[in-house]
Amino acid sequence: MRRQTPALQPSTFNLHPCLAFTLIECLVWVAMLAMIFGFILQLFFSGRAGADGLRRNADDITRALHAGERWREDVRTATAPPRLIEQDGHRQLVVQTGTNVIAYAFFEDTVWRRPQTNQAWQPALVRVKASRMEADPRERITAWRWELELQAKDPKKRVTPLFTFLAATPKEPRP
Across 52-141, where does the E strand assignment appear? Predict the structure, then answer.
């Protein structure tokens, strides 16, 4: 006997929901991924800008510290008390070291150093906003103080790079 198969009718099919995306759903996913990648790129570039600013600040601090240490060494090795003079409209700190005379001056946003009397001025530190070298008398010695302010690269920042260097001259003979 032959078995008859029942006629298939649409109502007897067990239809599964479609497992595909519609075009609108695909566009929504693409837009969400674009937003996520946009935020990631924004974070990356802001972090990179912060790291660049930190590197520039570290470079400025290093330059100022090297210049300050060189100044301190010149003052410490002085054979006569340093003196401030006014020459060519600029205030200069003159340091006598043996037969050599070292001079420091500030003009044109640069601290200049002249290692010998007959030599030309050399830049000791550039991009300087303010510089002041002055005597700082103490009880038994005369110390010298160099107050230095570098130019801020970002005017929005509230922190200005300020430095103060102190150096003591050799002991002066007592009368």
Answer: 83-87, 90-97, 100-107, 110-114, 122-126, 128-137
Report the alpha-carbon distance of residue 85 to residue 114 in Å, rounded: 14
pTM of the predicted model as reported, rounded to 2 decimal places? 0.72
Sheet holding 142-150, edge to edge: 128-137, 142-150, 162-168
Q: Do 104 and 84 meet the contact criterion of CB atoms below 8 Å apart?
A: no
Q: What is the C-alpha to C-alpha distance for residues 166 and 136, in angstroms, rounded to an integer?
A: 9
pLDDT tens for 17-31 read: 666 668 898 899 999
Phi, psi (rounded to 5 degrees) for 35: -65, -45
- pLDDT tens for each residue of 44-70: 999 999 898 889 888 989 999 999 999
Residues facing residue 110 across a β-bridge: 107, 126
Q: How many CB atoms lie within 10 A of CB 68?
A: 19
| pLDDT tens digits for range 132-161 | 999 988 888 889 999 999 988 777 777 778
If DSSP codes are grouped into helix, strand and coil, which group holds residue 77?
A: coil
* Pairing of β 122-126 and β 110-114: antiparallel
Amino acid identity, residue 73?
E
What H or E segment, with its residue span, contains residue 73?
A: helix 23-76
